[in-house]
Amino acid sequence: PGLDILAKRAGLLYFGTAIDNVVLNNTQYTSIAHNASEFGQVTPSNGQKWMYIEPARNVFNYSMGDAIVLPAIAHRQLRRCHNFVWHNQLPDWLTTGNWTKSELEGILENHIRHEAQHYYGECYAWDVVNEAFNDNGTLRSDIWLDTIGPEYIALAFRFARKYTRPGTKLYYNDYGIERINNKSLAVAAMVEDFLSREEPVPIDGVGLQAHFTAGTSPGYENITRVIEVFAEKGVETALTELDVRVKLPDSSEEMVQQAKDYADSVRACVDSESCVGVTVWDFWDTVSWVPDTFPGFGDACLWTANFTKKPAYYAISDVL
Ligand code: XIL
């Protein structure tokens, strides 16, 4: 059986993958990507980001997002939608605009309103705000913080709740929060603040991106502990972008370590009541973001360039 079938038997809601627009013409790729017994959930790795969705002010283009979401609906795969607010992959008109606070708040609401309504009812979850914190737990300086102030996060969640279908899970998503540290504790404090306000800020989940390196990934204990911290604050969690990169050139020892790190991470989610599912950040090495972003590293996915399953694939099915 595929990974999603096993994941559901193990009590998860889904096992999913990110899908990238650049390879949708490859039928070997799409036949795995939209195989619902393997992947019961998909995330567009780029297609729903601001630069593609609103390339000019108040001009919306959903073609890249739709190219992933529509086949996923047809194949009955859940969708995690990604993302409304981030510091990266913003269009030039937005980053060079020199906006006032109220102008940028208006732009933010207009963007969320349009995108949320286009995908109304089509998303199990939305990553409402992505990567807002620095490793030391302070907020990242970017156009949102610098123009609107720290309240931009709460504002984005309120807009998301207003325009998405009731029941849509609203997530804060980040990397480096897969263990207890300054950053994850700051995210937990934010959740506590949001939910304890007189007018609570609607947040349902925290996404642990889980971009790991073989041999130094946080491991079962660390991941289960931080998931428990978020659960105590009242939110669900998911591993939203799991991949385990290795130092190139690859070796069989590294593949064994990678398999262990993948399996431990998945097991941590399975064993945690509040962790709903696992998404890998693409399944095919050829389209992984890793080599471009981390020079000297790669081979981070479950399928090799020639579409054979790696030890990590079988290690995951063993723990599911
Ligand atoms: C990455 C995509 O995979 C790349 O194709 C793109 O060039 C850059 O963004 N954290 C996130 C994702 O939340 O949106 C990023 O995706 C990977 C890191």
TrEMBL record:
Q: In which pathway does it act?
A: Glycan degradation; xylan degradation
Q: Which InterPro entries match?
A: GH (IPR017853), GH10 (IPR044846), GH10_dom (IPR001000)
- This entry's Enzyme Commission designation comes to 3.2.1.8
Q: Which SMART domains match?
A: Glyco_10
Give its localization: Secreted
Mind listing the UniProt keywords for this protein, alphabetically? Carbohydrate metabolism, Glycosidase, Hydrolase, Polysaccharide degradation, Secreted, Signal, Xylan degradation
Q: Could you name the Gene Ontology cellular component terms for this entry? A: extracellular region
Q: Name one GO biological process term.
A: xylan catabolic process
The reaction(s) annotated as catalysed by this protein in its Swiss-Prot or TrEMBL entry are: Endohydrolysis of (1->4)-beta-D-xylosidic linkages in xylans
A GO molecular function term, named singly, is:
endo-1,4-beta-xylanase activity
Q: Does the keyword ATP-binding apply?
A: no
What sort of enzyme, by top EC class, is this? hydrolase
Q: Which residues form the GH10 domain?
A: 1-319
PROSITE patterns on file: GH10_2
Which family is it part of?
Answer: Belongs to the glycosyl hydrolase 10 (cellulase F) family.
Its recorded name reads Beta-xylanase
The record lists the organism as Lophiostoma macrostomum CBS 122681
